[in-house]
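Submission checklist for the structure archive. All mandatory fields must be present; incomplete records are returned to the submitter.

[x] Identifier: RING-type E3 ubiquitin transferase
[x] Organism: Salix dunnii
[x] Residue count: 689
[x] Sequence attached
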Amino acid sequence: MVLTEDPNSELMTRLVDSVKEISTLPECRNVSKKMHDNLVRRVKLLSPLFDELKDNNEGLSEEETKGFELLRTALDSAKELLKLVVEGSKVYQITMIQFLRLNDLRLVVSKSESSHVWNAQTLHRDDIADKFNRITEKIEAALSEIPYDKLNLSEEVQEQIELVHAQFRRAKGRPELQDHQLEVDLAIAQREKEPDPAVLKRLSEKLHLQTIDDLKKESLAFHELVIASCEDPGEWFEKMSSLFKKLKDYVQMANAEADCSGAEKAMIKHRSPVIPDDFLCPISLELMKDPVIVSTGQTYERSCIQKWLDAGHKTCPKTQQTLLHTALTPNYVLKSLIALWCESNGVEHPKQPGACRSKIGGSSITDCDQAAIATLLDKLANGDLEQQRSAAGELRLLAKRNADNRVCIARAGAIPLLVELLSSTDPRTQEHAVTALLNLSINDINKGTIVNAGAIPDIVDVLKNGSMEARENAAATLFSLSVIDENKVAIGAAGAIPALIKLLCDGTPRGKKDAATAIFNLSIYQGNKARAVKAGIVPPLMRMLKDAGGGMGDEALAILAILASHQEGKVAIGQANPIPVLMEVISTGSPRNRENAAAILWSLCTIDSQQLKLVRQFGAEVALKELSESGTDRAKRKAGGILELLQRVDVTGIHGSVHIDGLGIQDRCLAHLLSSREMEVDIEERSAM
């Protein structure tokens, strides 16, 4: 690779910043959401490429620089489009999509009328879908100009970028599926003077115009659109304004109905609200009262899915996938959303027997007693040390009890106050605060609130310096927050991984489990794998793996398997004499452990011929052949890949072109081919989980 004198670090920094800005844009809440989310997801997958090249600090050739400059320009265009979609008028976007796509449903607009639309300089000169497609084409073209094989990239990063490139290539020109119900509803709402409220309800839900605040934001965006037009807005904007007024009147009426008395609600009872599909059990098609999640990630009413399982079924009713286990996990987030929807729509929510009662200070109150919570928060903010400790402890217990409490406590503003108490000099107060945050973080919305309150550095400090109980619960809190991909980066950058490794080594059995779970989840992010390896995680993991009675072998093996996908992780594991213990696990371990051991062994063998030699010396062919026939699907692939490499070495050795302790060019090509194939399958498996 011909290097220039300029290391191009500024270019890589700008690319990293572009991806970061795109990743942190506000959520899209309009009809363009699917196109928006698909583009953001694919762009975020480019991040490891820029991070690795920036860390390498190597110069780029002229050809490479050209490709990355094209990519930077494309990402800048993507960022502007995404901002436009998120911040623009929702009514304008939906009417533009209808105008350009639907000849059979749209109102007839003359050329003179439609010309005003095209004169809005800052908004939508073409169909929104076409804009997204052009951006996709620009990014794909830029990726085609980058010679990956000439860059100093780790194997896994190169393979990931090639897969992302393939995703962009497949997305080019692929039309987005139209929402025919949305199109019909829009045509009716524009055509009729007084549309059916059910039509307006569906439109308001799909446009996310359901509150007075939503209307204010839309009104501002709508008026900015009119101002942006160089000429008289014309009849097209009048049609848009009419549609917006109909939606506004409906939303204001719906909000008023939600606040009316019981007698008033009875008068409008004939207007039955449409229950969102996500709130209905896929089996019974009725509103769920006790939603639970099965191993495929689908949610069902507990009684319905339990009957399904009791009948002997081993598959998910909706997806037909085989269930990995039959455990049912309560979906507290959805249950809370259903309760809120029922309350705002005047629908009686079917309660579970004996639910919704709690105790505070010995008196019985409802789960969402705002006055009681407000009293506790006042003690957190203004009380003495004893009052703060007591209030934090009660909030900890309340947040543990059920989903409704977690929503109410967060809404009341408890999270910033609890974050402040993480720095308390009183160990018990600190324990209560971090554990209360752990319980609140079960709610996905609360996760964002906790991070936005600046909690991550303080939680890491508790993990480093708190009592053992506080450290354990800090580790569990970091795991809960790391479910959100963006938080994995922030937690790793805050220095959590060395502290987690320390807890993994010297914690209680529960603390070690909490630390291992957090490390595993954080290591899904590529940068955290390197942090964990540099912090010295491999030696203690190997000790745990070899300690049959220590109770941490399963966790150690799972973490090693994910670290083995990183170049530095492979090297560190290879230096720890792993072959004997891995072969023992492959021969005698549980199905999941055999799978992870085979994955580690396969990763080592694809880069290091010495590991292949050791595998042969340990007589591994018999165990690997047995695993390739009777293991899990992934274990079969990994074992088969290793056997293929061993056979290849045998063949080339016969012809004298390679010795057992070295791989020739053809062998390395085979190893790379197997590695690419396995990486693609693994990524697909993770996406399906």
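[x] Structure attached
Curator remark: The longest strand covers residues 291-293. Strands lie at 291-293, 299-301, 329-330, 358-360, 363-365.
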